């Protein structure tokens, strides 16, 4: 293994000697334009994501609307400062371009020991063009907060986001990819979990033409805990890809990953790549990752690849699972045998499939927004199935 080029403030982080984990680097020349034959790109529709691979900055940042509680600060910082605060350097060309082309860095800072009662909300709307941004979120030791990032509108968006969570902090991070139909969004999100800190991450992808996100988590010390949840609903012709990497690089750390997706329509394609690495030093850790996909109509495809790399036998528990299938006939039969029409029975099955994840967000307004979006998608499914009869 080699040493990461991330600045010293991010700590000495070993890279992973694997074709699944490219070496991080701020140098764009270390991330040549991919052909699609590379392992990390082989599931990606290269022509459709090409604006993110060749783009130069052609417009300013997204149009942001924010709700910042007292004590929390949102400020512009230099690109150099953003790199110094980053958890890790870019892992692919999209995130490297995001950092390189960003007009400036953006920092959201939650001071140590601050307990924020109301959610911190940032809503970014694309207004067309190509946008590159590098955002750094810093959460001080023993702080408590909920952060919501909501993406809307049109355009092409390259993202590099770094989140540093201090020791003993408790933070929930919710991201909603709720783009218009033709939007393209790609990037890298890297999280560093402090000693004895607790992090809950919820990622929901419901819109856009192509979404491809790399989501990495590692630990700054023992005792850190991660609960990472995701939901996605993929329509005809849409491509949504989530690539998860949890690096257990400290002892007595925990992680629980659960992503669920539903697909409908010709050419709907979801990709979920989950990878958990348990290093030699990571004794007494606990981890589990799961991905479940529900294929609602013909012509949809779900690729799901869980990986578990274990370098020590001294662990409390580790496992993974992946399922892809159609409606559960037993569930449908049970509901229909009690007089519920087939269309309504299908709606209830999908509703239950998602609600178990959505209810864990802990922000009522966001939970309602997601379930409304799911209900809207289900109406399309019902219309399609009724038309096929």
UniProtKB/TrEMBL annotation:
InterPro entries: Fe-S_cluster_assembly_SufBD, SUF_FeS_clus_asmbl_SufBD_core, SUF_FeS_clus_asmbl_SufBD_sf, SUF_FeS_clus_asmbl_SufD
Stretches assigned to the SUF system FeS cluster assembly SufBD core domain: 129-353
Cross-referenced SUPFAM superfamilies: Stabilizer of iron transporter SufD
Entry superkingdom: Bacteria
Coiled-coil boundaries: none
A biological-process GO annotation: iron-sulfur cluster assembly
Pfam family, one: SUFBD_core
Record family assignment: Belongs to the iron-sulfur cluster assembly SufBD family.
Record's protein name: Iron-sulfur cluster assembly protein SufD
Species: Luteococcus japonicus LSP_Lj1
